[in-house]
Amino acid sequence: MSDVDIPRTARLAVPSATALRRLAVALVAVAACVAPFQLEPFRVFQLTMVLVYAVALLGLNLLVGHAGQISLGHGGFFAIGAYTAAVMLDRWDTPHVLTLPAAMAVTFALGFGLGVPALRLRGLYLALVTMTIAIFLVPLLKRFESVTGGSMGLTLSRPEPPSWTGLAEDQWLYFLALAVATAAGLAVWSLLRSRVGRALHAVRDNEIAAEVMGVRLARYKTLAFAWSAMLAGAAGAVNTWVIAFVSPDSFTVNLSILLLAGIVVGGLGSTFGPLLGGAFVLFVPTLAQDVNQAAPGVVFGVVIILIMYVAPRGLAGLAGRGGRFLDQALRKK
């Protein structure tokens, strides 16, 4: 029997791009749940930090990739969230779980406040203004030594796993970070699929056209800053749980630059961009240090250039091209 004689309903169904994407998400979810039981504690710690950075990059992706605003100050919001949690743990002996909403509330308010004066700025001018947050925050934290611990920082306790879970400390911290990252990812996904997401995309693509269509630019640009800062603050709080130590020198302007590089390399406006960017932020600087301890910045820069040359739309865009190639190959069969 020839291929022409085979009824269409009897032919092998070719999975669509949507089905392949759902399959990829399911595989990632399964791997995320299994990983801490298969890896050694140090690798589990590394994956936990990838999730922490992914939460911060979710916020930065919302602002840069979907709202079209540039920020070089998200390392500052990360630090504010970390210190909010640290001060609550150190001074008031607050339960760890309560420091997360507190850090989110503080950074949301600060992000909203920054969004108001930033309404008149765009492009490099906006980037320079936001970068001042990361620049002056470090000496400010050192100045208030009685609260922040100054240059010596604060040493804290980690959240202990409940006995009923049977988990080790590193596994418990991993699942806490995974829960926060999952909740943040679902919240951003829902937001972007709503009318708010369409308004943000309209502002990104053409502000004048968006305003003509009735989009209130001031409202959505300010809220984008606030939401983005809130997620960076949430990441900072979880970072405090994992590291159990905060110091001003851990939150220099280099962190803000690294986060922006991470989301660009991961893929602006993409679903998996923050996760891939989180892996980039954690692993690439370490690898650059191992390759050349005298000039790790040179190695780091070369890696970024190579990635951008091979994948102009980021690692997520490269993965997307691979998925489309696979989809076309399956359909030809």
Share of residues in helices: over 70%
User: How large is the radius of gyration?
Assistant: 22 Å
Question: Helical region count?
Answer: 14
Shape: globular
For the report, how would you describe the main beta sheet? 2 strands, antiparallel
Strand order of the largest sheet: 1-2
- The count of DSSP E runs of length 2 or more, i.e. the number of strands, is 2
Distance between the termini: 17 Å
Secondary-structure element order, N to C = HHHHHHEHHHHEHHHH
Average pLDDT, rounded to a whole number, is 85
Question: DSSP strand (E) fraction?
Answer: under 5%
**Given the helix and strand composition, which structural class is it?**
mainly alpha
Written account of the structure:
It holds the Pfam family BPD_transp_2. One of its GO terms (molecular function) is branched-chain amino acid transmembrane transporter activity. This is Branched-chain amino acid ABC transporter permease. By secondary structure, the protein is mainly α. The protein has a domain at 39-252. 74% of the residues lie in helices and 1% in strands. The protein has a two-stranded antiparallel ribbon. Helix 1 (17-38) runs antiparallel to helix 7, helix 2 (41-66) packs parallel to helix 7 (169-192) and helix 3 crosses helix 10 (217-243). The radius of gyration is 22 Å and the shape is globular.
Describe, in short, the structure shown.
This protein has 333 residues and is mainly α. It is built from 14 helices and two strands.
Topology:
Elements: H1 17-38, H2 41-66, H3 74-92, H4 96-115, H5 123-143, H6 145-148, E1 154-155, H7 169-192, H8 195-205, H9 207-212, H10 217-243, E2 245-246, H11 253-266, H12 273-291, H13 296-310, H14 314-332
Helix pairs in contact: 1-7, 2-7, 2-10, 2-11, 2-12, 3-4, 3-5, 3-10, 4-10, 7-10, 8-10, 11-12, 11-14, 12-13
InterPro entries: ABC_transp_permease, LivM-like
Subcellular location: Cell membrane
Membrane topology: Multi-pass membrane protein
